[in-house]
Known about the structure:
One of its GO terms (biological process) is tyrosine metabolic process. Helices cover about 70% and strands about 0% of the residues. By secondary structure, it is an all-alpha fold. The longest helix is centred in the N-terminal third of the chain and has 19 residues, at about 45-60. It is globular, with a radius of gyration of 17 Å.
Amino acid sequence: xxxxxxxxxxxxxxxxFNPDEGFAVVENEENSTKINYEEKIDKNILTQIKHDxxxxxxxxxxxxxxxxxxxxxKIIETCSTYASVYNNRANYxxxxxxxxxxxxxxxxAIEYGGGQKLLLGNAYTQxxxxxxxxxxxxxxxxxxxxxxxxxxxxxKLEVKNNPYAKL
Length: 167
């Protein structure tokens, strides 16, 4: 019985076994058809939540974790489809070693991040780093491949240095 692979699956397998081919930064089929939720957010609300998100990041950078986390949570209450806040809150969770929570947030960042290449590259790469830390090598590699396709330099480096690809 023959199984048909999607173009995306073929591309991932090609990158695993041929890491030196380089990466064309392209939007994969799955994410190109996803909704860009950020475009659907009222402009005034979007401006405010982006401002609040920057404040939260500053609090986190200054080790004022509870203040930063509270702002992230309020943003999510205001607009649960704003992908960037999930990516940033996942970074906080990763910093405090709450990896399960970080993975959940990264899944949401990817789900709501359709059409946002930079965000998707960062979310896939961060999720790959967590999976690598959790010894999920295949899951990490697949996420790094996705991150690289969205242009993330760290993901490209991880794929290039993948020991499985050198076999």
